[in-house]
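Renewal narrative, Specific Aim 1. Our central claim is that a sequence can be written position by position from structural information alone. The example that follows is taken directly from our test logs and has not been curated for this report. It begins with the structure tokens describing the chain, in the order in which they were read.
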């Protein structure tokens, strides 16, 4: 059986005023969906597509538990978590979707 990975991730908008926490088994695909505004809803409506934090797990139950845990935190605690790994709030997926050149 293939060893699967599951991710919890935090997205924000350009002004860092809104945080979105999600869980997925394919982080790159899911971030592309957010960036392309493919799925209608909260992140599309508020232009939330900047990946600022993620963790991975081998067990979906652990990932869902962590997602729910973080969702229950205050915004201040979520910001501290992001800044513990990404103090400049850089877009962690900014280079994931650049087209490769043939040169």
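The sequence written for that structure reads:
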């Amino acid at each position: 059986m293939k060893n699967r990975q599951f991710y919890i991730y935090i997205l924000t908008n350009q002004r860092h005023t809104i945080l979105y926490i999600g869980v997925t088994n394919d982080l790159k695909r899911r971030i592309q969906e957010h960036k392309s505004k493919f799925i209608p809803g909260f992140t599309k409506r508020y232009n939330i597509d900047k990946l600022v934090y993620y963790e991975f797990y081998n067990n979906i139950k652990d990932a869902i538990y962590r997602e729910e845990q973080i969702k229950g935190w205050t915004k201040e605690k979520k910001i501290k978590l992001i800044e513990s790994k990404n103090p400049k709030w850089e877009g962690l997926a900014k280079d994931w979707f650049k087209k490769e050149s043939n040169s």
